[in-house]
Amino acid sequence: MQKNAKQKLALEIIERLKKAYPDSGCSLTYDQAWKLLVSVRLAAQCTDARVNVVVEKLYEKFPTMEALAYATADEVEEIVRPCGLGRSKARDIVACMKELVEKYDGKVPEDMDTLLALPGVGRKSANLIMGDVYGKPAIVTDTHCIRLVNRMGLVDGITEPAKVEKELWKIIPPEEGNEFCHRLVDHGRAVCTARTKPYCDQCVLSDICKKQNLK
Predict the structure, then answer these.
(1) Average pLDDT in the 117-130 region?
(2) Where is the domain boundary, 116, 133, 150?
(3) Catalytic: 124?
(4) Which residue in 57, 142, 170, 197 is the catalytic one?
(5) Do 195 and 151 reside in the same domain of the chain?
(6) Is 142 a catalytic site residue?
């Protein structure tokens, strides 16, 4: 499929998902930018619902960025262990908060390169901060996004997150990227599922989806 055709398909998908999921947003609970950084690190290979429960306990003991910055990794690991990969996540969270306090006066940076230089922050986390916190163009290529855009035909057999992101930047209007990705998550959970057969008969995209048209 040529780029122009993919752009046209992307715009149609965006509009249909807007109607289907008008209230989509980040499912991680946070009220400050640094808390979103903590949550998205914990969310690796863990559900957002579990993360939202675990961070409540984390902030009971460490209510501020400074408190987390000077906690020990062992103390944090004890609380975040239910999210899996507790040791590495705890180590990254403490190191990240410490760098924010000591290098950035407690403010989460609002440019991609600086965010990516923080401990434990990858492109998914950085894009989420850019889009949800600072309202800047962002594309979050999580597992739902990667699965769905391949099924829909927006990308062709690409599964590496950075490469998927690069391809989507070519066809998704910058101002649409962040909300588009949130809607993909909702659609991936409700209809275009991973662990069961997709509910194509309920899908608002069934007539334009590559997966359906190949049948």
Answers:
(1) 96
(2) 133
(3) yes
(4) 142
(5) yes
(6) yes
Q: Residue 2 pLDDT > 80, yes or no?
A: no
In 3D space, the residue among 71, 21, 41, 61 whose CA is nearest the CA of residue 180 turns out to be: 21
Q: Which of 58, 139, 64, 63 is nearest to 100 (CA)?
A: 64
C-alpha to C-alpha distance for 113 and 49, rounded to whole angstroms: 29
Q: Report d(CA 41, CA 51) in Å as an integer.
A: 10
Clarify whether residues 183 and 127 are in a common domain. Answer: no
Spatial contact of 131 and 137, defined as CB atoms under 8 Å apart: yes
58: left (phi > 0), else alpha (psi -120 to 50), else beta? alpha
What span, in angstroms and rounded, lies between the C-alpha atoms of 101 and 22? 37
Single out the residue in 133, 164, 196 at which a domain terminates.
Answer: 133
Q: Give the residue numbers spanning the domain of 59.
A: 33-133
Co-location of 12 and 55 in the same domain:
no
Does one domain contain both 45 and 113? yes
**Predicted pLDDT at 211:** 80
pTM for the model stands at: 0.91
CA distances to 77, 79, 81, 89 from 86, in Å: 5, 8, 4, 5
Catalytic pick among 124, 156, 170, 211: 124
Using CA atoms, how far apart are residues 112 and 160, in angstroms rounded to an integer?
Answer: 19
